[in-house]
Amino acid sequence: MNLLASILRTAVPLLAGWVLTVTGALGIEADSVTVTVGITAAITLAYYVLLRLAELGAARIGWEPGRLVAGLLLGWARPPAYEKPTSTVPVHVRFDKKALRLEVGEALRRAAQDVKRHRP
Questions:
Q1: Is the CB of residue 43 less than 8 Å from the CB of residue 50?
Q2: Which end of the chain is least crowded, N or C, by CB within 10 Å?
Q3: pLDDT (tens digit, 9 = 90+) per residue, 76-116?
Q4: Could you tell me if residue 47 is inside a domain?
Q5: Helices 32-61 and 64-73 meet at what angle, rounded to 10?
Q6: Which structural domain range is residue 65 located in?
Q7: By CB neighbour count within 10 A (0-12 exposed, 13-18 middle, 19+ buried), where does 29 fall?
Q8: Residue 88 lies in a domain
Q9: In sequence order, what DSSP letters do the residues of 49-71 get, joined into one string?
């Protein structure tokens, strides 16, 4: 999952930037410069994917120098780690008028107290 997530986090911005460039922010004009940008994005993506695969492969076989070189060629010696949150926080939302008035009133009282405390 980390490999796929890191590739997607690189590919999607490259693709989006290229599409916006080629479509001329939806004016839809393409010239040699925009095609060059697309080719540059494709080469960049291929470079990234190949080095991430090399980094992952070297780590799996335990070849630390290969992993380190691939990581350095990507700009950082360690691959990114995308971790799931360890806990969640429940959120309670009340949609009745009375509760909303109470919450807004409390927020206004707190703001007024803050203003009074910070006046010179």
A1: no
A2: C
A3: 767 667 677 677 767 776 678 787 788 888 888 888 887 78
A4: yes
A5: 160
A6: 2-73
A7: exposed
A8: no
A9: HHHHHHHHHHHHHT-HHHHHHHH
